[in-house]
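Annotators were shown the component list below and the corresponding predicted structure, then asked to write short factual statements about the assembly.
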Amino acid sequence: MTRSAGPVPAGAPAAPAAPGAASADSHAASARAPRRLLIRTWGCQMNVYDSTRMAELLAPLGYAPTERAEEADMVILNTCHIREKASEKVFSDLGRLRDTKKERQAGGKETIIAVAGCVAQAEGAEITARAPWVDIVLGPQTYHRLPEMVARASRAAGAVIETDFPAEDKFDHLPEARASQGPVAFLTIQEGCDKFCSFCVVPYTRGAEFSRPAAAILAEARALAAGGAREIALLGQNVNAWAGEAPRTGQGASPEGNTWRLARLLRELADIPGVARLRYTTSHPRDMDDDLIAAHGEIPALMPYLHLPVQSGSDRVLAAMNRGHKADLYLRLADRLRAARPDLALTSDFIVGHPGETAADFDATMRLVERVGFAGAYSFKYSARPGTPAASQPGVVPEAEKDARLQTLQALLREQQDGFNRSCVGRTVEVLVTGPGRHPGQIAGRTPWLQPVHALGSGRPGDVVPMHLTAAHPNSLSATLAHEESAAA
Ligand code: SAH
Ligand code: SF4
Ligand code: F3S
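Structure shown to annotators:
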């Protein structure tokens, strides 16, 4: 991985934001004996969002967050299946949790262990066979039933397994009021994927594409803004494929008819008081429509940053991957987006060593990277996933070759990222203050391009303040508060 900021690399442990951000409903909690909930989150931002929602669901049962397994009455592992390594981590974590559960049991305390997320969806039966101390296995589309599952798990002898794709919409069953998420919040607007890229498990673990209605999204965004969110990141496995039912009242009679596309939704969200910044992730090149490209030049709240995975620069490999477009489409999109918003930073995802990838194909990827110039990227060695078409495609690339290609690609991506960060030094930019910095007297924030920033001084989380960027480090920028400079001058 070569990114310093931006999306959680799918498959890596997600930032601890999810468990930490989960705040219990204090009234409900105080009515019952206090219980502790530990949620560990891997994978993409959608898993981070789901973890937050699970914590909100369990808060009325008296579960307050903890970071320590020993004091947790319930542990949820929210898992990722995207690459082999990500899946393996679940089983090693479960091994350690068996010991913790035994130790707590010896002290007269029960522990409910739940496995959620995409590994649960894909390998539910294997989990209960390999780890019979697991009490609950639940897929990403059933977590709204968690309180009921907890009740059943407390009574039942065997594990409670819920990995169907239910007919009801889980979002209709989640609490409407959102706990405060701080200045930066995620909001899932679209879920699932119908694209079936050769290598990818997501269509199987998350199910078919589904877009939430605009009214529900706008209501959730208003609740987040009321709770202090200044920056909202819209989430979806193919977020720019979002096509949601327009609100029935108000602007329902829009030129687009009863269905809105993402650009229209972004325009409405930008009008919500308190919402200063909008982002959306992850997009597919095929779904970048004209209005969305134009929106980047027209909506000031839409940050000049876009994560647009391309995976490969070779048309042959893109076809084998079933991506449904050629490299040229990506190059044209990059040009059009930059024409609409000249300071747009592009980031991407790459896979090296997909079955059939030759040295010439890999060269084509290097040329695409040189031509586009990325502010950051995630890059991965192809990992065969059971049940996906690529897993049985010929032309397996030897591990050593994959390693070599990954190193070559990452060196170039790192150079581009460093260059981008250095090019920001000397500029004064708006920084969203997210909280205190790592060192005393510091505040931390993020730039419009999602770079972490630290500066000496004070500021309230949620404030957007001008800062003068003074130095670039591998994973962050240093800054001084612009108004303090002018006050001193
Ligand atoms: N919906 C997004 C990506 C979701 S998965 C898209 O269409 O691009 C996040 C990233 O994980 C992908 O972009 C891809 O680069 C990587 N990935 C997915 N499956 C993989 C596999 N089998 N091996 C290696 N990397 C993979
Ligand atoms: Fe996976 Fe492709 Fe769907 Fe992205 S578009 S989630 S890579 S199948
Ligand atoms: Fe991983 Fe599932 Fe997200 S497989 S990347 S947690 S959709």
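Statements collected:
1. The radius of gyration is 23 Å.
2. Residues 193, 195-197, 200, 202-203, 237-238, 284 surround iron/sulfur cluster (ligand 2) (CB under 6 Å).
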